[in-house]
Amino acid sequence: MADKMMEEFEALLEESFEMDTPEEGSVVKGKVLAIEAGQAIIDVGYKMEGRVELKEFANPGEAPEIAVGDEVEVFLRSAENAKGEAVISREMARREEAWDRLETAYAGEARVEGAIFGRVKGGFTVDLGGAVAFLPGSQVDVRPVRDAGPLMGLKQPFQILKMDRRRGNIVVSRRAILEESRAEQRAEVIGNLTEGQTVDGVVKNITEYGAFVDLGGVDGLLHVTDMAWRRVNHPSEILTIGETIKVQVIKINKETHRISLGMKQLQEDPWDLVAAKYPLESTHTGRVTNITDYGAFVELEPGVEGLVHVSEMSWTKKNVHPGKIVSTSQEVEVMVLEIDGAKRRVSLGLKQTMRNPWEVFAETHPEGTEVEGEVKNITEFGLFVGLPGDIDGMVHLSDLSWDQRGEEAIQDYRKGDMVHAIVSEVDVEKERISLSIKGVGGDKFAEAVGGVKRGSIVTVEVTAIEDGGVEVEYEGMKSFIRRSDLSRDRAEQRPERFSVGDKVDVRITNIDSKTRRLGVSIKAREIAEEKEAVEQYGSSDSGASLGDILGAALKTDD
Question: What pLDDT is recorded for position 59?
Answer without folding.
Answer: 62
